[in-house]
Specification:
The complex is a heterodimer of chains A (284) and B (255). With 284 residues, chain A is of the alpha/beta class. Chain A is 36% helix and 22% strand. The model of chain A has no long low-confidence stretch (mean pLDDT 92). Chain B has 255 residues and is mainly alpha-helical. Classes of the chains: A alpha/beta (284), B mainly alpha (255).
């Protein structure tokens, strides 16, 4: 089932001279885990905002094309209406804290209260996400007193509690340590396996390559490629587009093992299997 | 960093009373001494309020507030004692300057009402979490947007103070002079303004986006995490207080 349909999406911020998104078209199926990569100013954040309706409802500017998320055309619904179906986790967790609630527990409840979720259901969902993101011990803390990483988990938890059909995450692990990053990826993958569609902008290429089923590569507002990681990172022009392939791919390419094939290994496990296939076991 | 509030976080029977009942008490007991301008009324209201503050174990926090107001009160006594329009009977003289009975009595009336006002307000301020009060008001029909503005200001201003400190530290590490005489210290705040204002604008913009995405403008009927039912006892107390107010108004008109 198609969860996201984008057709001919072009967008220019008010007062901007250049298009931030230039004629993008793609579709995403339900339960897919999609990564978005690209250099700075390539339009990643704008695309995320277009998926939740902030572009164009919040920014205005000139908008062309069509974005349909979970069956809703973003032009025909307001942001709050879309919020039930598609959630967005922003880059900066600090600015996502409502500021109106005194504890982590109440902060997660904020969106649920807005959506009119009954109390017992609210409590059930809050307990669930507190557990899932491992912040249950922080339930009574003031959200502003948390560390960057804890705030980031809280931001993710607040969106997950809404139980949207699609979750868009804009660099959700920027303030997390390697272990925290791994946990977020695992949690998100688990959601994806439960049928939630995931779109994630991320600079941690190795992680994204390991978890995402497909990766969208943006450059100056254009969609350059939209393919599974093994295929996308086989491109030879990545450097020019401002992205670097995963370290494993670089090693394979660096020693000339890839033979310009259309698929390259992107994870440690893939690379090991690739090498074994080429040379046989080290013991033999 | 804490939110700006004078709330005293302890357990007491008064703390557990719902915010609306306390708010009604505060408003009524501030108003009644004005409706019935007798010393006895003002003093009884004040005594009852003080008993409540004692029960709430917050009397210690009230003392500095009241002592600060003594300055204002003594000014009232001096000015009214000297210049009250109806002054005729001299009460006493200080270095040849006469203080009058009528003026001092009038000043006493104002002061009692004023101290009563401070103490009544202290009940709601010291024993109620601001967020609880605002939530209670939103339940009663206050616009959630207005409620949000009220409660977020309490939390976001301390955050801004934090940001100011960060910017100050950053500027200082780049050689900005911030210590010395008053002029140097005032001058040091000028380079803070632009980053602080820009920062706040950017943060506000992002926060409003985040609120949108978190369905703040949703058309659904809002629910509350803590569903609170007002107990019968509290309803009775609320009605009693309102009857008291009504009685005071009636008495005023009958007399």
């Amino acid at each position: 089932m198609k969860k996201i349909v984008v057709e001919g999406l072009s967008y220019k911020y008010p007062l901007a001279k250049k298009l931030s998104l230039n004629n993008l078209s793609f579709t995403i199926e339900q339960g897919e885990f999609i990564g978005i990569i690209g250099a700075n100013l390539s339009g990643k954040t704008t695309l995320c905002q277009a998926l939740v309706g902030l572009v164009p409802h919040f920014y205005h500017g000139s908008f062309k094309g069509k974005v349909i998320v979970a069956g809703m055309n973003t032009m025909e619904h307001n942001i709050a209406g879309l919020a039930e179906k598609v959630g967005l986790v922003f880059q900066n967790p600090f600015n996502q804290i409502s500021g109106a609630k005194l504890t982590v527990y109440e902060e997660i409840a904020f969106s649920l209260e807005n959506l009119g979720i009954p109390q017992d259901e609210m409590i059930r969902r809050i307990e669930e996400v507190l557990e899932l993101l491992d912040i249950h011990h922080l339930r009574a803390h003031n959200p502003f007193q948390l560390s960057g990483g804890q705030m980031q988990r809280l931001a993710i938890a607040s969106i997950m509690a809404i139980q949207p059909e699609i979750i868009v995450l804009d660099e959700p692990t920027s303030q997390l340590d390697p272990q925290g990053t791994e946990e977020v990826f695992k949690t998100v993958q688990q959601l994806s396996s439960q049928g939630v569609t995931i779109i994630m902008v991320e600079h941690k290429i190795e992680k994204l390559a390991a978890y995402a089923q497909k990766i969208a590569l943006l450059h100056e507002g254009e969609l350059i490629d939209f393919a599974p990681p093994e295929q996308l990172f086989a491109r030879t022009d990545l450097h020019k587009l401002g992205v670097r392939p995963p370290i494993f791919t670089q090693v394979v390419k660096g020693i000339g093992l890839d033979n310009n094939e259309s698929k390259v290994p992107v994870t440690l496990k893939d690379t090991y299997e690739w090498v074994v296939k080429k040379f046989g076991h080290s013991g033999s | 960093m804490k939110s700006i509030s004078l709330y005293v976080d302890i357990q007491s029977p008064i703390h557990s009373i719902d915010p609306i009942t306390k708010l009604i008490y505060t408003l009524v007991f501030i108003l009644v001494p004005y409706i019935l301008p007798h010393y006895e009324i003002a003093i009884s209201c004040l005594i009852l309020t003080l008993i409540i503050l004692l029960t709430a174990k917050v009397i210690r926090q009230v003392i500095p507030i009241v002592s600060l107001s003594l300055l204002l009160i003594s000014t009232i006594f001096i000015i009214q004692g000297l210049f009250y329009p109806g002054n005729s009977i001299t009460a006493f003289k200080v270095i040849g300057i006469a203080f009058y009975h009528e003026g001092l009595r009038y000043a006493l009336g104002i002061s009692l009402k004023f101290i009563n006002l401070l103490c009544c307000s202290a009940i709601i301020i010291l024993t109620t979490r601001p967020s609880d009060l605002i939530e209670a008001l939103v339940r009663l029909g206050l616009s959630p947007k207005l409620g949000y503005v009220m409660s977020s200001v309490l939390q976001i201003i301390p955050q801004m103070t934090g940001t100011t400190q960060k910017i100050l530290d950053a500027q200082r590490s780049r050689g900005l002079e911030t210590e010395g005489n008053i002029f140097i210290r005032v001058k040091a705040y000028i380079p803070l303004l632009i980053p602080l204002v820009m920062n706040s604008l950017i943060e506000t913009n992002e926060r409003s986006m985040a609120l949108e995405v978190r369905a703040f403008n949703s058309k659904h009927r809002r629910t509350f995490l803590f569903e609170k039912k007002t107990s019968k006892k509290m309803l009775v107390i609320r009605y009693l207080i309102l009857v008291f107010l009504l009685g005071a108004i009636l008495w005023r008109f009958i007399k």
